[in-house]
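User: New here, please read:
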Amino acid sequence: MQKDRKTLVWVLSAALLVGSLAGGLVIAQSGHPTPAVVAPAPTQSVNSVNVVGPMVPAAGFASIVKMTGPSVVSITSTTVTKTAAVENDLSQMFRGFGFPDMPQLQNPNRSRRQQAAGSGVIMTADGYILTNSHVVDGSTKVRVTLADKQGYDAKVIGTDTDSDIAVIKVDATGLQPIIIGDSAKVEVGDLALAIGNPFDLGQTVTMGIVSALGRKGLGIEAYENFIQTDAAVNPGNSGGALVNTRGELIGINTAILSESGGNQGIGFAIPSNMARTLMNEIKDHGKVTRGYLGVYPQPLTPSLASSFGIKDTKGALITQVEENSPAASAGLQRGDVIREINGTAIGDPDALRFRIAEAAPGSTLNLKVWRGGAEKQIAVKLGTLDRKNAANDEPSASPNQSGKLGVSVQDLSPQMARQMGLPPAASGVVITQVQPDSPAAEAGIRQGDVVEEVNRQPVKSAGDFRNAVNQSGKSVLLLIHREDRTIYTVVERAG
C-alpha cells in the first residue's frame, strides 16, 4: 500500500524544526484539525452531539473555548541521544607534528538533548492525558503545561504506534477532563475547532469545517480512518483536540498534508471513538491488543466480482489463508469473499482489517462468506495480532485490470520452486515473458509470477495452462503467487 507521497513529509515532535522541512505530511509537531459538529442552541445538553443546524453562535465561540481550553495541554518531550567521540582540531594538530595522542584534548562521548513540542487532551480528573505516540515515543522526559501555566512531569503509560495514540499521566487531581463526543455522528460540513500548541506558542484556537470523513490509504499509520478538516493546524498541534460546537471532543489532531511544512487547509484527526477505545486499552493493559484472523484480502474489482458471480464489488476477497491461523481453523478458503461480520457489511479489505483489529482476541465473529455462488455462514474465533503475524490481514496489492494473454510460461520444477522460496509441493507455471502492451501486461502480470490456477482450476503444467486459457471466455481469472503472497487477477483477452 505504499503510495507516491512526494508531497508528504512527517515532522516528528520537533515543533520549531518542522518549518524548515520542505513538503509533507507533518505529524510529530503538527496538530491537525478534525471534523466537528455544528453548534446547537446553548441551552442544549453538552452530552449530545446531534447536529441541529449550520448557524454560528452570535457571540462567537468564546464560551466553547472557555469550556474546552482547560482540558487541552502543551507537551514538551525530551530525547537524549549519544554522539560518537570525535577528536577536536587541536588534538589532530598535535598528532600531525608527531606528538602522542592527548586524550584530554579529545571530545568524549557526549549526550545531545533534543526537545519537541506537542499537545494533549485531559481525559480524566486524576491526570490521564491522551496525545499522539509520535509526540512522546522514545522520550526520556515528558513535561506537561496546563492552560493556566501549571507544569507537571508526566509518565508515559503506553503508546500504540500503529494508530499514533499514546496515554500519559501526571500526578494531579481535580483536573478538568474534556467531554467526549460521538465521532460517528460527525458529518461533512460540520464546524470544528482545533485547539493545541502550534510552534510551541502556547494554547491556540482555530476554526474550520469537517472536510471529509474516513480518509485512509495515506500511508501515515497502519490503521487509518481520519477525519479531515481545514481548521488551521501547524507543527505542535499534534495530540491536540478537535472539538465540535458543543465543546465535545470529536478527534485527536495528528497530521497535515503540506508542501511547505505549515498549514495548507488539509489536516487529519483520529476519530474520538477510536481514540477512546485505544486509550482504555492502554490504561488497562499498558498496550493495545488486536484481533488476528490470518488472511490476505484483496479488493473486488468489477471484473473479479463478475468472475466470482457477485453483482457488486462489496467485500474482501481472500487470496491466501495462513496455516494454523484462526481463519484456517474456521475453514475459510482462498477464493472466499467476506461480505459481512456480525451482520455489518464489509465494503473492502480495509473495512475487514479494521473490524478484525478492533475485536478482542479470543472473541468469536460470525462471517457471511460468498463461496461457489452461494452465501455461507462461518464462525471464527480470533487470535492475537503480534509482530510475527502483523503482515496478515492486510490487503493484497491489486493489479491493474483490463482487456490472447501475451505471456510465455514454463513448468514449475522443484529446483525452481526452491530458488523462489516456494513450498516443495508447489505446482503451477512460471511466467517467463510478458509482451509489452499485451492484455497480461495491462493486467499487471509480471515475469516470475507463478500461475497456480486458471478460472479456479489448478494448473500443473504449461499444457494445462494453455488448455485452460483456450477454453476461457473473454475474461480469464488467474491465481498468481508473487513475493510470498497469492493474488487474484482478471486478464481480458483480445480474442
Notes: The chain has three domains: 8-82+113-286, 291-384, 407-492. The two ends are 33 Å apart (CA to CA). Residues 272-285 form the longest helix (14 residues). The chain is about 15% helix and 35% strand.
